[in-house]
Amino acid sequence: MKITQRPYGTLPTGETVFQFVLEKENGFTVKVINYGGIITAIHAPDREGALADVVLGKDSLEDYLEGHPFFGAITGRVAGRIGGGRFELDGEECILQQNEATNTHHGGEEGFDKMLWQAAIIEVSGRETLRLTLTDPDGHNHFPGNLRCTVDYSLDDAESSLRIDYTATCDKSTPLNLTNHSYFNLSGHDSGPVLDHQIQIFADRVAPFDEVGALVGRLDPVRSGYNDFRGPVRLGDLERLDAGNADIYYAHPQGRTDRPKLLATAFEPKSGRFLEVLSTEPGVQFYAGLCLSDRQQEIGKGGCVYPPRSGLALETQDYADSVNFPEMGGAILKAGQIFHSTTLYRFSTKG
User: Within 10 A of 326 (CB to CB), how many other CB atoms are there?
Assistant: First the structure.
């Protein structure tokens, strides 16, 4: 495996953004920029060995700066929604930016997806690794504490596997829920709806929400024929795809673990590409691109239009609103503690 870098563009501040290319001998390639930690491309082989870019994205830094639905980005401090945009922690009330209805969504107006990360190519456990580092200051987006976060991207020992390691510390207690928001289309990013994909999610409960998308503080059993993906389900076979089955948090029965466990899989039968998602996190937010809209003309790489349901996200994370419902999850980092989690996106093929 090797990592190379090249200039990708310049921010309005004059700072240079770099793209890093992680590549295996078999051609499996992951491209990451240090603006937002965005995965701009993943080239994975099909069953015949032909490579295709299997994540949605934009063509240039300028396109990302114009706005996008979190394509491939690190989301934080808190991926997901903090209901009411407020919480109380260690006896202090914090009032956050409400950037989606009454919620704080994906960290606020300037979340981790819109920040420039410091980048270095280092060696970890004998592997070349891209390490991105960010210091999020106390009070930014109204969150408490100076948070130091690192995200490591590397190609794991498996033939076509991306490993993401997250580490964070803070000098005050703070909500924390980190994930990567890549949208996958295993046929190729420009192949249209993902309705032929077969999805399996190893979870028996989901986290319901209210009319403005805020979590309500409970887990409900999955329902057969609707949001039960414990056996592989072809998305196009479901009567409907909506927020209750294709934009919702699925809780794994094991919860948080020391070693990555299998949370979900996706299989696209025409190409044969098979994706396994493993993580130490206790669950996964499944999103089938419901709000990708041809009415808004979401223009992607190569000038193609991404219609609704043209990509799916499997965002490994904790219960997003743990700070308001601590009995539901552990998305809280105490002062002086060290947070660490690992996620693997493992690509292979099936006949």
Answer: 14
pTM: 0.97
Say whether the peptide bond before residue 223 is cis (omega within 30 degrees of 0): no
- Output the CA torsion sign for 212, 215, 221, 225: positive
**Residues 196 and 162 sit within 8 Å (Cβ to Cβ):** no
Tokens of residue 208, six digits: 């319901």
Q: pLDDT-derived band of residue 325, with 50, 70 and 90 as boundaries? A: very high
- Strands 147-155, 247-251: pairing is unpaired
| Catalytic status, residue 181 | yes
What share of the chain has pLDDT > 90, as a percent? Answer: 95
Report the C-alpha gap between 133 and 37 in whole angstroms. 10
Torsion (CA) 39, 26, 275, 20 in degrees, nearest 10:
-10
Please state the domain count of the chain: 1
Average pLDDT over all residues of the chain = 96
Distance CA 26, CA 160 (A): 8
Domain extent for 168: 2-349
In 179-208, which positions are buried (b, 16+ CB within 10 angstroms) versus exposed (e)? bbbbbbbbbbbbbebbebbbbbbbbebbbe
Catalytic annotation, pick one of 43, 68, 181, 197 = 181
Q: Which residue's structure tokens are 């996620």?
A: 343
Which residues does residue 276 pair with via DSSP β-bridges, in sequence order?
265, 346
222-276 pLDDT, tens per residue? Answer: 999 999 999 999 999 999 999 999 999 999 999 999 999 999 999 999 999 999 9
CATH of the domain at 57: 2.70.98.10
Catalytic annotation present for 315: yes
Residue 295's pLDDT is what?
A: 60
Residues 162-181 have pLDDT tens digits of 999 999 999 999 999 999 99
